What we know:
Blueprint: E1 14-17, E2 21-25, E3 31-35, E4 43-52, H1 53-66, E5 72-74, E6 83-86, E7 90-96, E8 99-108
Antiparallel strand pairs: 1-4, 2-3, 4-8, 5-6, 6-8, 7-8
Amino acid sequence: xxxxxxxxxxxxxxxxxxxxxxxxxxxxxxxxxxxxxxxxxxxxxxxxxxxxxxxxxxxxxxxxxxxxxxxxxxxxxxxxxxxxxxxxxxxxxxxxxxxxxxxxxxxxxxxx
Length: 112
């Protein structure tokens, strides 16, 4: 598995964690909640990359090579190690001249 090493534009990253839980609501108002599985804290990261055509093409080529399903390593902020990610899609936006913006969302992957 390859490692994503490109650096996003400073101040453009947004991380999100949405815990997966199971709950049961009982008639007397009592509610029971537990974590759903071993990996119940999946992360997503929205990243932005800005640069000239060649720089953005390198990021695009890496993502295209994964074809939307092939996982890769990346170390998000606040993590002690690389985690496994997939990318379903990305958006390219021309910013003028030869400058482009690439927006992408990484979704944490827990497969084998």
